[in-house]
Specification:
Blueprint lengths: L4 H25 L2 E5 L4 H6 L6 E2 L5 E6 L16 E6 L4 E6 L2 H14 L8 E7 L10 E5 L4 E6 L5 E5 L11 E9 L10 E3 L3 E3 L5 E7 L3
Parallel strand pairs: 6-13
Antiparallel strand pairs: 1-13, 2-3, 3-5, 4-5, 6-9, 7-8, 7-10, 10-11, 10-12
Length: about 220
């Protein structure tokens, strides 16, 4: 079969258009993923140390962002009188009480309980845009060989804590081919606003990982 020079040029042009469209789509939907060394100043700075604050009404309160596990089932110390609230799918605990001692005791108990159970894995980090501004209210999903859609929402400062275990205790198998999908708060069923990171591997040697995700926005 013979092709004319004109046919060849047309085919080359169409291929170039398709490739340009594909690369444009990749640039628009691909997020930058950086893994921070565990315990490094950069990793620790993502989750500042929480302290007990005094309100104008003379009460004592704190807000704790989980690092390694959900806080929704944290036991309340015996005799604690105050208000507790959980949000961000159990990632964040806020407490307020009239007793400064009780506030400090509860905060310490939450810190002590926020440990990674044996055999479990967690990914925590922050999602920001190209200007470094946090992406609040976004949903982070684990995708790949194991699709893990469990509504891990970013906080107001863009941070999230993804415990790799679903409500039934099912854990993703270790291995390669995973990536994170970030769905913006304004996404709807009719209008997708989402990005995905490069692929990575879940490894038993790294049960706890810290990520910075920069979306192309």
């Amino acid at each position: 079969m013979q092709f004319s020079l004109r046919s060849l040029l047309i085919a080359t042009f169409l291929l170039a258009v398709l490739l340009a469209g594909w690369f444009g789509y990749r640039r628009a939907t691909m997020a930058q993923l950086t893994w921070l060394p565990l315990g490094s100043p950069e990793a620790e700075a993502l989750f500042p140390v929480e302290t007990v604050q005094t309100t104008t009404e003379g009460q004592f309160r704190f807000t704790y962002h989980s690092r390694r596990k959900r806080l929704g089932n944290h036991p309340v110390p015996t005799g604690f009188l105050g208000r507790l609230s959980f949000r961000d799918n159990g990632q964040t605990l806020s407490a307020e009480t009239d007793s400064e001692v009780a506030a400090h005791e509860l905060l310490q108990s939450v810190r002590d309980a926020d440990v990674l159970p044996t055999g479990r894995q967690v990914i925590r980090g922050r999602v920001v845009n190209r200007k470094g501004r946090p992406l609040a209210g976004a949903i982070v999903d684990l995708m790949g060989p194991f699709v893990f859609i469990n509504h891990f929402q970013t906080r107001e400062d863009g941070t999230f804590t993804m415990t790799l275990e679903d409500g039934g205790g099912l854990r993703p198998p270790l291995g390669s081919g995973y990536y994170l999908r970030i769905r913006a708060a304004e996404e709807t069923a009719e209008r997708h606003v989402r990005w995905h990171t490069p692929m990575f591997t879940l490894d038993a040697a790294e049960p706890e990982r810290v990520a910075v995700i920069i979306i192309p926005r």
